[in-house]
Amino acid sequence: MTYPSVPLVPLLINGEFVQSKTTEWRDVINPATQEVLARVPLATPAEMEAAVASAKAAFSTWRKTPIGQRARVFLKYQQLIRDNIKSLAATLTAEQGKTLADAEGDVFRGLEVVEHAASIGNLQLGELANNVAKGVDTYTLLQPIGVCAGITPFNFPAMIPLWMFPMAIACGNTFVLKPSEQDPLVTMRLVELALEAGIPKGVLNVVHGAADIVNAICDHPDIKAVSFVGSTRVGTHVYERATLAGKRVQCMMGAKNHAIVMPDANKEQALNALVGAAFGAAGQRCMALPVAVLVGEARNWIPDLVAKARALRVGPGKDNPDLGPVISRAAKERVEAMIARGEQQGATLELDGRIRNPSTEISAGNFVGPTIFSKVKPGMVIYDEEIFGPVLCVTEADTLEDAIALINANPNGNGTAIFTQSGAAARKFEEDIDVGQVGINVPIPVPVPMFSFTGSRASKLGDLGPYGKQVVLFYTQTKTVTARWFEDDVSTGVNTTISMQ
């Protein structure tokens, strides 16, 4: 099949956008219409090698670039993103399906990390101890580690690349980025703006691809660190393969986040939060809330929850409905198959989002409406597996202790929340829950960039998270210097001990 009018997505190697010489291409498809927007290459081994070589060569000069100069690049970059946020959101909506409002949020949350990167002068500080012994000082240097790489998912094609390369580059490293092959267009536009902001040739490179490129990133001896966000299956593979090759690795992976709703919660606020967090972005967030645990009398709120979800509008993201399509035909089929399994395994289908007779406006798209199950229990597929679609599972607990035990028994630990007006209940929850990110009357507790993303357990591999103080440690190596200076006419004689008196 030929595509005479469809643009080809380029690679970025050594500061130049180049067309791949590959024979393998993938279509970038608008999930609301099935329109082919572009074709993305699966880069060749030679192109991958060229990208890494470019980054390695650029590192020798970029690592010595003054920290203030690096910061000023990102000061300019954040302004360029701000100036182009509407067009970036429109591109994101076309290729990923999010509503325009949600797409702007995607860009904005990434922009916050770019702003944080512009503060690198305050973040990349070492430590000093004066006179640790007579005339001896000890201090640490946080130095860049070299070529770093990032592998990003389809669901946040603006935010997650902006989690990765700005902080790595601001710390003095160079970077090879592999965007999702399903929606690379907004990522490439962000890369264009990064070059416009002043990132030098070779400091940022982009390769496109699938499993072969992921494996090449894991294996390449010149890549020193890998950041990954995506599924648990792929993330586990990346972590094991890349760490075996001696790399520093952080992997943010799958989730099954729970929200506890206590009977004393503000009912209207809690239900609104549940509906927004469960169905926003068509449920395609690793920080979505696909499980609600209703405690005590809160279990009587299910009809109100269903009514709110039923009122949500489904449609193409460009029309700014409440939720758009899922990313692909395969994703739609998987979500609908999971709904069918939920029914078969005995959960009560309170609201069925499968669209039987779609209107002309949405007939071509990958649309699934809000879906709610009650009487969901561990052991059911819809509870045990990450659906990554607009499906909310409602389970019940008699007490807060029972609800906490249910959540702690789940292997995932990305995020969780509680809705209550009791300070005592909130404090018990935050103390006893074994989950990395906790919301108290906040449904999606993703922290602002001054803090780090702290998912835990099966949702995360690696001990340092993206952005915040933790990521500065991830993208730097600590060098400890112990120094002693003598006046020219002073002699201390030979000392054969290790003591520094």
Automatic annotation (TrEMBL):
UniProt GO BP: L-valine catabolic process; thymine catabolic process
EC number assigned by the record: 1.2.1.27
Gene3D superfamilies, per the entry: Aldehyde Dehydrogenase, Chain A, domain 1, Aldehyde Dehydrogenase, Chain A, domain 2
Segments forming domain Aldehyde dehydrogenase: 17-481
InterPro entries: Ald_DH/histidinol_DH, Ald_DH_C, Ald_DH_N, Aldehyde_DH_dom, MeMal-semiAld_DH
CDD domains associated with the record: ALDH_F6_MMSDH
Keywords, ordered alphabetically: NAD, Oxidoreductase
Gene Ontology molecular function terms on file: methylmalonate-semialdehyde dehydrogenase (acylating, NAD) activity
Family: Belongs to the aldehyde dehydrogenase family.
Record-given protein name: methylmalonate-semialdehyde dehydrogenase (CoA acylating)
Annotated source species: Noviherbaspirillum denitrificans
Taxonomic path: Bacteria, Pseudomonadati, Pseudomonadota, Betaproteobacteria, Burkholderiales
